[in-house]
Amino acid sequence: MTHIPAIVETDIEALFRLQKKNLSNIAATSSKERIVKIKKVMQWVLDNQERIAEALGADYQKNLFEVKVSEVMPVVSEAKFIIKHLDKWMRAESVETPLKMLGTTSKIVHEPKGNCLIMSPWNYPFNLTLKPLLQALAAGNAVIIKPSEIVVNASILLVEMINELFPRNEVAVVEGDARIATTLLDLPFNHIFFTGSPAIGKIVMQAASKHLASVTLELGGKSPTIVDETADTKFAAQTIAAEKFLNNGQTCIAPDYILIHRSKTRQFIEEMGNYIQKMYGNDVSQSPDYCRIVNEKHFSRIKGLIDDALVKGAKIAIGGDTNLTENFIEPTVVSHVTNEMRIMQDEIFGPVLPIVEFNHLEEVSDYINAGEKPLALYMFSKKRSHIDYIIQNTSSGAVVINETTIHYLQNNLPFGGVNNSGIGKSFGKYGFEEFSNKKAVVENKFSTFNMFHPPASKRVMKMLDMVIKWL
Q1: CA dihedral sign of residues 186, 192, 197, 201
Q2: Which of 190, 227, 319, 453 could be stapled to 113 by a disulfide with Cβ–Cβ 3.0 to 4.6 Å?
Q3: What is the rounded distance in angstroms from the CA atom of residue 208 to the CA atom of residue 361?
């Protein structure tokens, strides 16, 4: 794969100014012109699926099946949804005229925010770069993309893609490490879209505050998965296994830990063990469908969570094998965990699943509410009162019942967290609005407001009292 030279640090400010000069031209584009850009992105992804898989295979052994499921399908789905609805989203929205505003018309106009920065992560480098890019393009913005430096081959291909599809005064990629990211954050962007950890999210938000830039922070945290006594245990175990170990567990919305009714634990572990074997065979390390931890640093971090738990009394219920030379960690289920263990404090972001048992549903809501608000919450149950109780008594970015992670594919819903798990919403119309300024426009057709001008005569006061009464 040929590396197209990336922009160097000294050119970053010049690139920013170049895009800023072009903002009025981009803002003036019609829905048809923006759709052309969106179609170009979609078609490139469709035409280059195998090259994407090749790049991610080189980065951390990601296979074509996972690339289609988790990189291609979400981008194509988002693109088609935007293409279908963009013309309607761009139209001015008329609003009702109240009595006190008699003689006026009012509407909401969506205007682009302007210079936008997208800082994307390494775990889904095409999906989590291109979906916000599509939303930014739909809203009529100029965009600089800062991809993660961890997945080198994916970043190289992303640079090639953007250079092929867009002039630099519309969309450009800036590669580099934390120093380059800091240089970018010093610039007065109008909006910053960041996907990553809460710790770095705080740094991004602090930098944005210097310029009063708006932010979208898609973060993460410990997304709980509840399995109550009424759940279909086999279905729950199989569903959780498939979606937890996708991408080797390196997914911000992956189930982080299980809260399971004590009566279901043994069967759940047995069913999950059977399904892991069905998916990956007797020797997971030889499975072509199981990718790897992205690098040695993250391997050591995850293994450290397991080791810390074992020292403090946890037990391995499934898996546990590791291999540093391959950054390989087997699908692992850990039981007998406590809150003193780091595995129950830190977001795991890997193929390790702790199990916490409960007896009463109130214990579950108390446990979840004691921590930070999660990006997602999953529940397997057949009892409506249990489902309603959890929805009403917990706070999270999303709730999915009798499945996990599938809300990511629902373009009609907002996607995002709450506080520590994220700020702002994206996807579909919500993403379009996130990259837009909702401008209020009021037009006076015939004047009625001069009756309230001084001097405050008895007639004016009487009229004012009538208006207040009928508001």
Answers
A1: positive
A2: 190
A3: 41
| Phi, psi torsion values for 49, nearest 5 degrees | -60, -45
Q: What count of other Cβ atoms lies within 10 Å of the Cβ of residue 68?
A: 14
Contact present, 4 and 159 (Cβ < 8 Å): yes
Say if residue 332 is in the same domain as residue 403. yes
Q: Which residues pair with 333 in a beta bridge?
A: 318, 353
Catalytic, 252? Answer: yes
d(CA 434, CA 386): 34
252, 291, 330, 347: the active-site residue: 252
Tokens representing 10 are: 């000294």
Closest to 257 (Cα-Cα) out of 314, 199, 197: 314
Looking at 218, 243, 271, 434, which residue is catalytic?
Answer: 218
Q: How far is CA 396 from CA 99, 417, 465, in A?
A: 39, 7, 45
Q: Judge whether 218 counts as a catalytic residue.
A: yes
Helix (H, G, I), strand (E, B) or coil at 79: helix
214 plus 351 within the same structural domain:
no
**Burial of residue 370, with CB atoms counted within 10 A of its CB: 0-12 exposed, 13-18 middle, 19 or more buried:** exposed
d(C-alpha 449, C-alpha 468), whole Å: 14
Residues 376, 362: Cα–Cα separation, whole Å: 19
Q: Which two tokens stand for residue 29?
A: 């584009």
How many domains does one find in the chain?
2
Q: Please confirm whether the linkage preceding 455 is cis (ω < 30° from 0).
A: yes
- Find the length of the chain: 471
Distance CA 118, CA 461 (A): 54
Helix (H, G, I), strand (E, B) or coil at 291: coil
- Please name which of 468, 471, 451, 448 lies closest in space to residue 460, comparing C-alpha atoms: 451
Q: Is residue 453 part of a domain?
A: no
Q: Print pLDDT tens along the chain (471 aa).
A: 444 445 556 699 999 999 999 999 999 999 999 999 999 999 999 999 999 999 999 999 999 999 999 999 999 999 999 999 999 999 999 999 988 888 899 999 999 999 999 999 999 999 999 999 999 999 999 999 999 999 999 999 999 999 999 999 999 999 999 999 999 999 999 999 999 999 999 999 999 999 999 999 999 999 999 999 999 999 999 999 999 999 999 999 999 999 999 999 999 999 999 999 999 999 999 999 999 999 999 999 999 999 999 999 999 999 999 999 999 999 999 999 999 999 999 999 999 999 999 999 999 999 999 999 999 999 999 999 999 999 999 999 999 999 999 999 999 999 999 999 999 999 999 999 999 999 999 999 987 778 788 898 988 898 888 888 887
Of 387, 409, 431, the last residue of a domain is 409
